[in-house]
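On clarity, I found the account of how folds are encoded harder to follow than it need be. Since the whole study asks how a given chain folds, the encoding of that fold should be made plain. For the editor and my fellow referees, an illustration may be useful. An entry of this sort, consisting of the sequence and the corresponding backbone structure tokens, reads as follows:

:::
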Amino acid sequence: MILSNLCFSGHVVAQLRVIFQPVMRREAQAEFLAYVEPLIPTSVVAREDGEMEGARDPNSGLIEVKRLYKPHLSRFGMVIKLPDIWRSVDLVPVYGR
């Protein structure tokens, strides 16, 4: 899977699962890492500048996202550097679907 297909303006919405620091045997201390699971928009639209973005719900103006799964139905996850986390976002759950 190509990560650029998941990105919008260079950012990815993801669920943070764990923060960790590998144990190093040398004197140098390893940097902090995070395991995240990306969330992708359920539908996308093209903007006037050609960039893609998530389609907004006409009533709330929010973008609906869903989990990304591998072909054998396990969750897709990745390890990133902790400083690469830009900010937190609020997600509103949708029940009954």
About this structure: The CA atoms of residues 14 and 38 lie 4 Å apart. The mean pLDDT is 81.
